[in-house]
Design brief:
The complex is a heterodimer of chains A (about 400) and B (about 475). With about 400 residues, chain A is of the alpha+beta class. Chain A has 10 helices and 25 strands. Chain A is globular. By secondary structure, chain B is α+β, with helices and mostly antiparallel strands. In chain B, helix 1 packs parallel to helix 7 and helix 7 runs antiparallel to helix 8. The radius of gyration of chain B is 54 Å and the shape is elongated. The chains are: A alpha+beta (about 400), B alpha+beta (about 475).
């Protein structure tokens, strides 16, 4: 038995009409299968509790998880305004548990991660754990601590996909959906296990340029010095600009030209874009940069970005045992739209070309993802990926293979 | 010693070799470092070129997106011709594609001397109220913007207190305002703004918003022109309707009056016939001398009474016939009549008068028009009347011709004479009751003025038409149609 999914979305401005239209489409697509998990993503203006109330009235006692985003990805378009609902019907031998935790001033990110991990594990006991998907917002400020806390409970090399929710610049908010509640400063997640198979790939499409450089001083996500020089100097040099000018355009420019941390064992570059210039020319980065890392100045084009989306889709396709996914979740960095401009929708077309246009899929724009870089049932080290596109495909393992695996 | 010297020499040689090698490697490293530095410099050039390219691409993308958005807005607003609907057609996502999530339109109402909001996107009702109050508090500035006919923006007003104030009022960090200037009616302005610090608007955006404001102005003009035209048409339709209603009511009145007239004539005619019969009876008794000899002078007067009574009876009978035909009391028999034989009989009946004036007659009945459907006695009255008139008005040695031909489903009969003719203005009036043309013949020959009226009623009662064509001195042609089938 496969995972069945019904996807419905709406561009309606009216919250009730939008939810009803999305639910109607999703129910129609799901057919006779019974939904037992609901995933919801909505744009800022539709991010109100009413939306979840309508869903839970229609599907009482079915867990709901999701979050707000600056754009939602539907099977046919990328929408700045709208809502998308996935009604998932997971077979009985795929187990799951959902949980949510609100941020609290007197708790460390580590403690919050541990608490969420503990909640997710609740009632899971000895069942085979396969994957956890976590949506988080403000906690990401200390993402490493939060992740460590989660791994502490779920397992150090346990596959985890952490979604960093993007803040809507206009609505100045990012919100987590959990059952009937919309919560700010929170994290929610799902732990999946049993007869489940998944494939995941994360790619960005940026290429290194210029000579390698070394991080001579850093702490967490603060990059103090590169090659013994103030970190901001790298942008001053490459972009032929000065600090005051750079400050006004830093976010945009560092999205186009991020810093890439070289990971020689995995033959990849993790991207980090600068958010702010602070005293002594230090840069506040989106994600940690370890001291001693080899870094490069990175550059991309529309083509390399689109090619990365194709590579990710192909990698997912190659990792699928049955050759076809039951359900696809797309996590696309909000910053990629800056370089892709009006070709942003092409990524979606490429994914459909590679994985099939009839597969139920949905997604959202994110601020980044925590995931291992190597795909397919990975047990490798996790990283924070910025400016990437992440494709997650879920499948129910065929019964015979499942039995063989268990024996 | 020798061995030691050899070893020393070897060591020196090795050291020299190693030194040379290190030197060579150092040179290689320097070369590599130099190349790397050069490569880095080239990379910097690439990045700087790429920045320019990206900037150009972004601007181009923005322009393309803007043009698409403008095209969509233009298409949308051209589908409506109602002021409020025009603004509703400007969808939020269209302006968001231009980079502005906040939009407002204010129009100035001259009567109220105040600005009122017509479109608002991404503002709560409370915010809108607050902005409206503040706009009206500083309305001279916004009226100035309208009169200047120029757009303003955060770029054109950069660093001024005014733009900071506008941004504060409209809750925006970047603002463009463009006047909406329709040729007629309320004028106003379009506001587009954003709170998104990531958006970096430029002069091109001002151009787009100005174009959009111009499109809105044109749409308002169209709407108002349409409204004017619509109102004019509506007024005209209303007037036509009113006039038709009046005419219909008048027609009803005329019908009522006509019926009353017919009823009156009918009843008067009936009332007149009884005393007339008595008058004529007594006159006949007296003339016959049944009451004793009547002197010649009295006899002469009695004959006059008798003759006038006959004329009056004839007139009363005609009137009665007209009123009966009008009221439908006389049913026309529908029988096939042979026109030639009927005309010949009538001409024969009038042969004395024809002979007296030496008038020649001719008959030309086309074979396809030889038969008509009519009431024989009534049709005879038609011919007697028209031919009688023709004889009356045709001078001696004149000519009268009767012809018949097929005209569509009817037979058209033409009776022409070489008489004095009828003036153009009177050709229609001759069919009116009691109408007599003012000419010397009519003055000398007596008539009731009812003959042609009766003919008209008979022809029309058969489903035909009658008309006359004539020119004074060139004779007249009386034409009428009759059906060929029941």
């Amino acid at each position: 038995m496969s995972i069945y999914a019904g996807i419905g979305f709406s561009k309606e401005k009216d919250l009730i009409l939008a939810t009803q239209e999305s639910l109607r489409q999703a129910r129609m697509q799901l057919g006779s299968a019974r939904a037992n998990l609901i995933m919801v993503f909505a744009s800022g203006e539709l991010s109100v509790p009413g939306i979840l109330k309508i869903i839970s009235t229609t599907f009482p006692q079915i867990p709901i998880i999701g979050c707000s985003s600056s754009s939602i990805i539907t099977p046919s378009d990328i929408l700045k305004h709208g809502v998308i609902i996935a009604l998932l019907s997971l077979p009985d031998d795929i187990f799951f548990n959902t949980a949510c935790i609100a941020h609290s001033e007197n708790k460390t990110s580590l403690a919050i991660g541990e608490e969420l991990g503990k909640k997710l594990l609740y009632a899971f006991q000895d069942m085979r754990r396969v994957l956890s998907i976590v949506f988080s917002d403000a906690l990401v400020k200390d993402d490493a601590g939060f992740l460590m806390g989660l791994q502490e409970k779920l397992g150090i090399i346990f596959p985890l996909l952490g979604v960093s929710v993007v803040e809507n610049p206009v609505y100045k908010q990012n919100q987590i959906y959990y059952n009937q509640s919309i919560i700010g400063n929170a994290a929610c997640g799902i732990l999946l296990g049993g007869r489940l198979d998944f494939t995941l790939s994360t790619k960005h499409g940026w290429k290194p340029l210029g000579k390698p450089r070394y991080v001579t001083k850093s702490s967490g996500n603060i990059l103090h010095e590169i090659d013994g020089q103030p970190a901001a100097k790298i942008y001053e040099e490459y972009l032929a600009t000065n600090i005051p000018k750079l400050k006004t355009e830093l976010k945009r420019l560092s999205s186009l030209y991020p810093i890439g941390i070289h990971l020689p064992q995995e033959n990849l570059y993790l991207l980090r874009n600068a958010q702010e210039i602070i005293e002594n020319g230090a840069l506040v980065m989106h994600g940690n940069i370890p001291e001693g890392s080899t870094i490069r100045f990175m550059i991309s084009t529309k083509d390399t970005c689109l090619e990365a989306a194709r590579e990710a889709a192909r990698e997912v396709k190659n990792g699928l045992h049955s050759g076809k996914a039951d359900f696809i979740l797309i996590l696309d960095s909000v910053w990629r739209s800056l370089i892709l401009g009006n070709q942003a929708k092409k990524e979606l077309e490429i994914i459909k070309e590679e994985l099939g246009s009839d597969i139920p899929m949905l997604g959202l724009y994110t601020a980044g993802e925590h995931a291992a870089s190597i795909t397919s049932n990975f047990r490798s080290k996790m990283h924070f990926h910025s400016q990437s596109i992440t494709i997650l495909a879920l499948n129910a393992i065929e019964k015979t293979r499942w039995q063989q695996k268990n024996n | 010693m020798l061995i030691l010297a050899i070893i020393m020499a070897l060591l020196v040689t090795a050291a020299l070799f190693l030194y040379a090698k290190v030197q060579s490697q150092r040179q290689d490293i320097n070369k590599l470092q130099h190349s790397l530095q050069e490569m880095d410099e080239q990379a910097k050039l690439i990045v700087r070129t790429d920045i320019e390219l990206n900037k150009t691409q972004e601007e181009l993308d923005k322009k393309v997106t803007g043009l698409y958005a403008l095209q969509r807005i233009s298409r949308a607003i051209s589908t409506t011709l109602e002021d409020h609907q025009i603004f509703k057609m400007v969808e939020a996502n269209h302006l968001e594609e231009l980079g502005f999530e906040k939009t407002l339109v204010f129009l100035y109402d001259e009567k109220q001397a105040a600005f009122g909001p017509y479109l608002h996107r991404n503002y709560s009702e409370e915010e809108l109220k607050d902005i409206t109050v503040k706009v009206n508090q500083d309305k001279d500035f916004y009226l100035g913007l309208i009169h200047s006919q120029k757009s303003i923006s955060s770029i054109s007003l950069k660093g001024t207190d005014k733009i900071n104030e506008i941004n504060r009022i409209f809750k925006s960090i970047y603002t463009i305002m463009s006047p909406i200037l329709p040729k007629e009616g309320s004028r106003g302005f379009l506001f587009a703004g954003t709170e998104d610090p990531e958006i970096s608007p430029n002069e091109g955006d001002t151009e787009f918003i100005t174009i959009l404001a111009n499109q809105l102005s044109a749409a308002l003009d169209n709407s108002r022109l349409f409204e004017k035209t619509w109102r004019a048409q509506h007024d005209l339709e209303r007037k036509v309707e009113e006039r038709t209603r009046e005419l219909r009511s008048l027609l009803e009145e005329v019908k009522v009056i006509s019926k009353r007239k017919t009823d009156f004539i009918s009843s008067v005619s009936h009332e007149l016939r009884t005393p007339l019969t008595s008058i004529k009876g007594y006159a006949s008794i007296l003339l016959a001398g049944k009451l004793g000899n009547v002197p010649e002078e009295i006899k002469e007067r009695l004959e006059k009474i008798n003759r006038h009574s006959d004329e009056l009876t004839h007139m009363v009978n005609d009137l009665l016939d007209i009123s009966r035909i009008e009221s439908g009391k006389i049913a026309m028999k529908q029988e096939a009549q042979d026109l030639s034989s009927l005309i010949k009989i009538v001409i024969d009946l009038l042969s004395v008068q024809l002979k007296d004036k030496d008038i020649t007659t001719s008959i030309d009945i086309k074979p396809e028009a030889s038969t008509v459907i009519a009431d024989r006695s009534q049709l005879e009255r038609v011919f007697i009347n028209i031919l009688g008139n023709a004889i009356k008005f045709t001078p001696a040695k004149g000519k009268i011709s009767v012809s018949a031909k097929k005209s569509q489903d009817m037979v058209q009969v033409d009776i022409s004479d070489t008489g004095c003719g009828i003036p153009a203005g009177e050709q229609e009036k001759i069919f009116d009751e009691f109408y007599r043309i003012d000419n010397p013949i009519n003055e000398s020959v007596k008539g009731t003025g009812l003959g042609l009226a009766l003919v008209k009623h008979i022809v029309e009662a058969h489903g035909g038409k009658i008309w006359a064509k004539s020119s004074p001195g060139a004779g007249s042609t009386f034409s009428f149609t009759l059906p060929q089938k029941n």
